[in-house]
Amino acid sequence: MIEFKQIICPVDFSQSSVRALAHAAVIARWYDAELTVLHVVPTFDAMQVRGDLVQPIRVVTPMPREQMLEEMTRSLNLAALSPRAIPTAEAGDPQATIIDEAISKKADLIVVGTHGLRGFKRLLLGSVTEAVLRKAPCPVLTVPPHASATVSEPVTFKRILCPIDFSPSALLALGFALDLARQADGLVKLLHAMEWLPDEEPRITAGFSIPEVRDARERLRTLVSEESRTWVEIDDLVVFGSASGEILRAAETEPVDLIVMGAQGRGGIGLALFGSTTQQVVRGAMCPVLTVRGLPQS
Questions:
Q1: What's the whole-number mean pLDDT along residues 108-114?
Q2: Do both 79 and 108 map to the same domain?
Q3: CA 286, 289, 293 angle in degrees (round to 5)?
Q4: Structural element, H or E, at residue 105
């Protein structure tokens, strides 16, 4: 059974991070998890900065760590969000500090927004979020700007979309999808995209009898045991077209609460994550995306 007991949510006080924190808090309450709310600053030490003609060099003293923690607790209302929320302030590089904190805490989940202080229209992918997705030692839940800013009801993930390309990371992601849906008495839609037709419009395979489609449907069916299908509703779907396009289309045609997918595709652990299907889905999804990395190769 999937259990998130240590959750980390980086915050920069942007609307994006507040939105991600709202999701992290309800997941923490659902699993009775410890929630580390992490804010990273360049330094807590006094530093010299360039001034003006009157005062060429100025000394700036950042907010002390203790005051920062008090400000985080007050402004983010952590006590109301989660009884086990722990404000944490660290100095250093944001990407490295988040990863180090996840390793130190043995985190089960990192929750992060896809936009930051650089502007609502500028994705942080390529920066902090990208680095976290690339290097995180645990699954990462990315929360897009389209998701609700506040969540008053427990997260249940009743409808989950799980893209399957039969890679090791996709199969690992399937385990997360099935267990989350089981806890919510929900539905998992398994989707396999066959990228050998140029058409933009999706074509559902009902009525097709070509061997490739039959094989794909049979492989999807055998991924989930008959016993598992008694406690989770499964919808197997094979479509034609671009994998990222079909995933996003399926998530919007019949809206889902969550997309769960592997971080590496059939190219293996060495395949660059960004520029891939995963990147396009994280960028374009209207709902949160849970990204699961494959197990390290020996």
A1: 93
A2: yes
A3: 155
A4: helix 94-105
